[in-house]
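Predict the 3D structure for this chain.
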Amino acid sequence: MSLDKKMARLRNLLGEMQQVVVAFSGGVDSTFLLKVARDCLGPQNVVALTATSPTYPEFEFEQACQLAREMGVEQIVIESNELEIPGFADNPPRRCYHCKHTLFSLCLEQAQKRGIDTVLDGSNLDDLSDYRPGRDAVQELQVRSPLLEAKLDKAAIRQLSRDLGLRTWDKQAFACLSSRFPYGTKITAERLRQIDTCETFLRENGFRSYRVRYHDTIARIEVAPDEINKILDPKLREELVSTCQQAGFTYVTLDLQGYRTGSMNATLPQR
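Done. Predicted structure below.
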């Protein structure tokens, strides 16, 4: 199916809906979904719901609020402290299920208060190729995933976002900070702050694709392969090491495989 046909399919899917609540993080996928839903249904029939939590950096929240304002849609902001969800902080392999189940339950609650029948999320075709226990929560709660239904992958969403003039078209992929911890490692507010401090340094120094993975006293840094030489600049490297150590890490390592999504899933049994 051509990109134009997939886009037409997405518009048709959304056009069949009357009012929707969009789970909105301000990332590439949910921004694109919110924009198309707004264009198809009108701003008065679309609500963006954004959840704040210790796993969601402040700069991401601020960007989400700005995008919602620019689109002229109502935005609901709720607090969702995943660390208080039973079974989450211990970081089991199905951690993401607990998080998504709580998030989408809150979305459904807000939708019902407004008499809205449909909640949407930004899952896309690529999400089927990795371990995504959060998808179980989406299906259990009957949340719709129009991008997935239209068979749009991340590359297509970026291209279509660019065509629509969305500045998020080339935004780096973001996952909640909890994904930086090996399964079974307890997630705490302090450890999340450690990761956030180190990743803020990388972002502010112009890195595009990065993760700082938590391994007790060790910070394992992943950057895109074409950015590895940049991180080895003596002055930058020294500042990065200092930042990580001040954040509470003893050792700072560079992962030579480079950044890749879901690298913590490598420890799981083959599915």
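The chain has ten helices and seven strands.
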